[in-house]
């Protein structure tokens, strides 16, 4: 059985992408905390089931210079956009990354979550030669800051040397992928510890409008009107009897 074909996606980092790094969050103007991935690129990286399901947590190996960080990261859809995020990447070394630097995302094509993804960052400040060589390959084909190369296509073999496969850490056990679509793009604000204000008392007008109060008022009104209705009926009866008696009086001769 042939091994699965690989794919390498290249992204030229934008300012909003820098929110993934702890070293950049103090100055970040965007609330984004992940790498943006164009939908057509995400579709080539992920399997049809993961793409249609909105994404999943996937094992990722982040590589920058001598740094290796291996952990599960969320690769999924948030509203109309796709994000590769997860926990913030800590370390002062990441402060040297800037806009127009690169991240190379290497994976098997149609990844169903059982294969790790390698994210390799290339920085102009720390490695000008490598950055310049990578820019020469991809700058003319970038579309919305991204380009994707599948194994066997022109350019793939040139990119492999920039993002070599990194073996998993000893003892790291990959987990089965779990389809997961975020229920909301905005996380709830954390509790600030202040007590909640007491519930507001209803006004007399609000109390009168409640169904059980209205029902009680109608019942009382009915009870109060009953004696009056009885009195009216008795008066009418007496008047009627009086009229009948007058009709029966003998006529004078």
Would you report the number of β strands? 8
Distance between the termini: 135 Å
Q: What's the CATH C level of the largest domain?
A: Mainly Beta
How many helix segments?
A: 6
* CATH architecture group name of the largest domain: Beta Barrel
Total domains: 2
Low-confidence stretches: 181-186, 245-253
- Compute the CA-based radius of gyration: 38 Å
CATH domain fold name of the largest domain: At1g16640 B3 domain
Average residue pLDDT: 82
Main beta sheet: strand number and arrangement? 8 strands, mixed
What is the share of helical residues?
Answer: 25-40%
Shape: elongated
Fraction of residues in β-strands: 15-25%
Q: How are strands sequenced across the largest beta sheet?
A: 2-5-4-3-7-6-1-8
What's the SSE pattern?
EEHHEEEEEHEHHH
Structure description:
This protein is of the alpha+beta class. It has 2 domains: 6-160, At1g16640 B3 domain (Beta Barrel); 201-236. The protein is 28% helix and 21% strand. The protein contains 6 helices and 8 strands; from the N terminus they run E-E-H-H-E-E-E-E-E-H-E-H-H-H. The longest helix has 38 residues, at 211-248. It starts with 5 loop residues before the first strand and ends in a 5-residue tail after the last helix. The relative contact order is 0.16. The model is unreliable at 181-186 and 245-253 (pLDDT under 50).
List the topology elements.
Layout (H helix, E strand, L loop, with lengths): L5 E7 L22 E3 L1 H7 L2 H5 L2 E10 L2 E12 L2 E4 L17 E7 L8 E6 L5 H11 L7 E5 L5 H5 L43 H5 L2 H38 L5
Parallel strand pairs: 3-7
Antiparallel strand pairs: 1-6, 1-8, 2-5, 3-4, 4-5, 6-7
